Structures
1.
Amino acid sequence: MKKVSNKNWKNVLRLKQKLIFKLIGKEYAEVTTRILVAKLIVRTIIALRSNDRTDAINRLLSKSTRSILLLAYVFHDLLILEEKVEHEVFISYLQKLTENCSSESIVFDLLRVYSQQNPNETEQIMELLRSETREDGLPIKQTNKLLLMLKLFPDSLSTAETIYKSLTAKAVSFFEATTDAKQNIDEWLLAFEQCTVHLLAQTKSQIDLYDLIRHILKFFSTFTTNAISLLKTLIQFFVSQESKDHKHLAKLFGHFLKHKNFLEQLSSSNRSLLMDTLSLFILHYDANQSSVTIDCSKHFPMLLSIYNPTLSKNDQHTLACMHTYEKQGYSMQSAFVWGEAALKLYSAATDAKSVLLQASKLEQVMNLLDDRMMLKSILFYPVTRRLRNVEASVFEEGDQIYDPAYLIPVFYHSLGPENVVKCQQFVEKNCLAYCLMALSSRCGLLRAVVYNCLARFEQHLVTQRFHCKEQILTMFTLLKQSIKKSNLKLAPIVALFLSKLINLFTHPESKMYRTITRFLLKQPYIDLVHIPLFGELFHSVSSEYKHERGWILNLLKHGIKDSIDYTLCTNAYVFKTLMTFYNCSLCDDTTKMEILNVFHATSKLQDMLMSLLFDYGFLLWLQNLIKTCSSESLKVLSLIIQNIGTRLVSVDNRVQLLEFDCVLMLFIRRLKSEMLISTSIADAVMSTVLKFQEYFKSSKRSLDIQQIKHIIDCSTIAKKTSLLSCFC
């Protein structure tokens, strides 16, 4: 029996080794495929006996001329499992790897693991990365090796600076001699930018970058994203140096503005990067110390013509650039119009005075405002947006809502006592409602400007006549009597309620008009610390009870934006009421959907969601809800589950994790009964599953890939992710 056993083992060993070298002999284009094949090879090697394992690893090293990149994934996993390798042979393999594949992320991971486990070999790795690579044209490989050095050995600054200066000189020579490059310039641009970023954060040495910046500006007739990104980083490095030459800076600024496709590219997708680069020049340009004179005040027509006062990424960067101009003392001298209107205004005017005279009408500004965008801007008002700090951030529906950092100052200046204001138009365009919503802003300075806007508007309103003037004045009186503290921040729910009142005043035919007017006349103030009319409207006994309930739920859905809203909702027992009413026979499908939308809005805020989970048993309520909810509710439910998964992944609470595990399992099973699953639902579930993959692996009720096959088939995330690597 013993002889047969040994014979069988040898046969198995041969088969396994044959399998390993057959897999190694092929090239795999996809990263996910390489990861899976590497895992299979590693598992096969680990299953061998100790001596056979060492033999297999040595044979892999001897075959390292083939599938160099695939072997990097294999050796990375083997080193993590603390398998031994022959250092001399492995170093020679690393030399081939860094020469051919230094741009791949796995190379850095492999070198990091190897240097951590073998600190004595650090000098040899440094020598590999320091060695010069012979290559024609741009030094792409050498740049990638420098990047590896900066990441692995951040203390080796002097060596890195020497190599960086050499690379800069080679790049200048390349751009001087070449007009049409056949090389992969984008790869060099990305690697060199990352090297510059690392050095910018660490070094204080003086590196001459003038020639390189000048040649890059000359070389690219049209800026690519990578080119302008590198240019921005190089200029940031150039101006950060203590001995920067202001004459050179002015010349570069002139070259940048005179670039032949500069104006066309301001309207492209690279506008945000161009605006940041322009801001850097403006911030450090000194006309007194420069030989080149640039009239920066004439740039405003160009900037305003491409600007739209939304919270999209490009528009935020453009506003930040204009803000930099003004901080440096260059006056805008405009009526805050934008787009084509600004271009026409400046082209028609002959001097600054005529610009101001033509621009003094608020009517021009209001004609540029889109009614739908104004309504959306009120519902999705960004309470975190600040007035002076105009750095770009990501906002919900950002490209569809107006920017209060631009619009509120426009209203303030346009409502001045010297201007003629059509109050009715200001109300009907929802400008007044927008100002009231802005009272919920976290920025104290912005709120102060808004209060001044309201005071100026009231002065104009008193002298005019139109149909809802008295109602607005009454609301102003009640609001003034309710505010006990200067520059008071209103809860977003209350601010939205006031904004909706203005809309109702202009539509007296609305079903809510009589209810709201009765509420305003009932007492000499507005209660700002409670949700107005929640009990009366939600439990309405009038014939229009469905409309009134839907109105207050819509207010909650769009009004919950801040922690103060949670306090108001808790005091009014909002969450308990909604959770109880959802399962009531009187709750129709429309109301159920609105209730879920309220909880979806709540789940976006970390503190409020945690309170729902720990104080209200929200996950247990969801478990019961999933079994009986309608198909139309699944999309909102998937978004709620995704929000919970995003915020719960950092919470170390076993009970909540188990409950969330049950919710996710139930939802996955519920989706099996659906004939068709939308892509958005599938993506929301898949992103949550991938975040919790490690938890599922260790769980006794771990997910099987077959359980989510019906979701994988509909998900776009699944196509980009190696699911086998998550579940095997």
2.
Amino acid sequence: MLCLLFLSLPLGAAEEVGQPPVAVPDAEDSRWTRTLERVASGVVTIQVDLARAFDTEWNTSSQATGFVVDAKRGLILTNRHVVTPGPVTAQAVFLNREEVALYPVYRDPVHDFGFYRYDPAKLRFIKPTELKLYPEGAQVGREIRVIGNDAGEQLSILAGTLARLDRAAPSYGLGKYNDFNTFYYQAASSTSGGSSGSPVIDIEGRVLALNAGGSTQAASSFYLPLDRVTRALRKIQQGEPIERGTLQTVFEYTHFDELRRLGLREQTEAEVRRQFPKLTGMLVVSEVQPGSPADGQLEPGDILVEVNGEPIAGFARLAEVLDDLVGRTVHLTLERGGEVLERTLPVEDLHAITPDRYLEFGDAVVHNLSWQQARHINVPIRGIYVANPGYVFGAAGVPRGAVITEIAGTPTATLDEFERVVRTLGDGERQPVRFFTVEDPRTVQLRVIRMDRRWFPARACVRDDTQGAWPCIAWNGPGEPSLPQPASTTYAQSSDPVVNRLIPSLVLVNFDMPYSVSGITDRNYYGTGVIADAERGLVIVDRNTVPAPVGDVRLTFAGTVEIPGKVEYIHPLHNLAMVSYDPALIGTTPAKSAVFRAAELQPGEQVWAVGLSRDSTVQSRSAVVSAVEGVSFPLSRTLRFREANLETVTLVNGPQNYDGVLANEQGEVVATWSSFAYDAGRETRQENRGIPADLVTEMIEVVRDGRALRSLEVEFAALPLAAASRLGLPAHWIRRLEQHNPERRQALSVVRLVGGSPAE
């Protein structure tokens, strides 16, 4: 029977730790109550912040449980996924709500346990109980308690009974941390995420196992045995390194009925049953890592019989032997299809194939591919894992989980090889990258990245468990951008004379944002720009192409010449922006300033919508003006820019797949054909509308002359005169507005004001 209990303390004990007493059922065994009172002060809530994405973990915040196993040294045992494989900051909250900083000491490369340390001198009001590890006490049918935190809110006790001691390690999915080469214990329960790292104790308060995970569908919890934990704790206490050996092979515990089908000989089964009467199976090779010394020597389905002449049928003894033989060889006796095989293999250092160093540049985090990730996709443990694509790789379409095999034409099997190439790249320098992804490891993809040494630091960081930190060394190197050499191109001609007049005035603008600012979360944009001043290199775009002044601008002429640009001006009120380029960089390219015609468009008037697609292909369409009307977009949920107080041009079947300009028959720009982004509920939507040329020319003059731009800080909306009359607008004003614009017959109504402005 299972039940969820909450810790009860006698009044004196409750006063000692500053917690109110909590009632427990009368049926609660008094012996268990005394045990829980004694050990509760040694159980802590751990608040974790992952500072960087690393290996299987994303940078995020979480909470879990841990418990004191050495009060003198301040050692806390918890799960590996709580200590995390990468940079982390953490703190422990004790039962009396005292907080202390935690520093990672050790995280196992494979098994789900690790240690934090704290400074015992920092605790002023509590002396935590030191919980003793008692791995030999785990038995089927033994009553247990799991002491954890209920999502960090309170200490909770889960009662249960150990049901299995030979469960396979739980699988959490592709790309995530998964334990292997160990048994797990199992009991029916429903522990929450905050219970990760909780002690599983017996009635004497001794720790039998470590709570590691659970299945909500099956209402089961999984506990890690403590055989490797006790060894690691002893090594830490003695100040010795924790050797971990591996054959880069995953074994699976398989029962005798299945072993017979694999060809296990009768005499072998009889001998194993005699030596291990409590076991019902043996270890079988499940995975052999490609490129490892065991590759080609072992095969899935091989039954492990002996190690160095010693019969072995369980994980604990196998791990013990391998851990003691790091750097040496081990002799295995196996059976394959009824045939006895002998193999001698080197025992590798498990820590050597576990990343403990990363590079950070352009907001990206990369490190050596780990065995955890390599085994998921059955590839050799080599290559550079993209833990966070950041600005550099994200803009190029290289995703998280990509494994880089080559950069700038140089193979990169290790992080050292990768760093030697990357740290020589200057800001803005482009280089090709070859990679594959975890989802499709057989397909090699090619992208071109653009190096960043401007927006983000570039450094190499190495784990130091003596400090509990990852000290970093900044890169010395070029950093300075290398300016492109001038280049020239020509424009292709079309059969439409209007389009031919406009093509030399259009340029493809790409904009990459290094940071999320002003409610804008997307980082990569492109759109069509129109050259307003070819002599000075000024280009007009919309704010859905260049949404903020912080970022990198690139302009492409005629689909051939790409040069850098910079943001000159972001219109504070309307969907317009201006970027610039150095005209010398396009050589003799016949770029021209567009001719703007400030004319009021009328419904039914014919225009040409001309722009560029993402690959710089010229797009054009003859269209008819549908209306010239004020915009009315929903209020922004993310506080991003939202257009208002603007009459825009809409077209009958206007193109929505490209932006650019609207031109008359003479090839004069009468409006920009701009993309407007706005929030609609929890989605961001886009639609194209025309911005009249008079507003564009006004902005050009403001920028050229350095004039101030003024605003009433009021948002207006069009109101039919009939509605205005009902609101009390005098008749003489109705007549004046009627005469002013007989077609529109409308007034402007105040919708909202900017708080704190003079208009308020």
